[in-house]
Amino acid sequence: MSDQEQKIEIAGGSAGLPQDAVRGVAESGLTRGEFLKLAGAAGLGLAGMGALLGAGPANAGEQPAGGKSKYLFVITHGGTQSSRALLPLILADTVQKRELGEVHIWLVLEGAELCRKGHAEKMVAPQLHKFGNAQALMERIHRNGGKFGVCPPCAEWVGAVGENRHEWVVNRGADWIMENIRDAYVVWL
User: Fold this and answer.
1) With contact defined as beta carbons under 8 Å apart, do 87 and 38 qualify?
2) pLDDT in tens, 146-181
3) How far apart are the C-alpha atoms of 30 and 10, rounded to whole Å?
4) Burial of residue 152, with CB atoms counted within 10 A of its CB: 0-12 exposed, 13-18 middle, 19 or more buried
5) Domain assignments of the chain as residue spans, ordered by start
6) Is the dihedral of CA 9, 13, 19, 25 positive or negative?
7) CB within 8 A of 63, min separation 6: which ones?
8) Global pTM value
9) CATH assignment of 65-189?
10) By the 8 A CB rule, do 33 and 54 touch?
11) Average per-residue pLDDT in the chain?
12) Which helix (H) or strand (E) holds 103?
């Protein structure tokens, strides 16, 4: 049995994931322990992890059956919980790398801290350190076409207004999130 087949067998046997999702885990280079920590830290269901790790569209650019080709990540955590703030950014980066669809990120509540200049580069999660800090992830996602919005009252609350906010993060209110939920895969963390 090859190393790749062993990774697939170990991940599939332990996590009970669909085989497409298990292959995605094995191909990502994550160890079984790293994957389980990542899945547990996020509190994600197996269906959500399966969609992000390979149980979604089989080929890059393929339109899924439900007509969705957009991923909407809602980030509700900030600096006091850097792991929970970074995880959706890592997942969004993965969607872009695998060319699964458009990426939209909405920063709300403490998650609005991410758009305040000088703050995101300080956010590093010890268990996710190999992915870099929040600033580097956000800049890469933006550079690759990702769109960032922030809850206007939340941005005010954390001081992310005017010159204190990254210029590529725009105000997006509740009406925007409700309109965009219906045609996107939504990951709310």
Assistant:
1) yes
2) 999 999 999 999 999 999 999 999 999 989 889 888
3) 12
4) middle
5) 1-56, 65-189
6) negative
7) 57, 69
8) 0.65
9) 3.40.1260.10
10) no
11) 76
12) strand 102-107
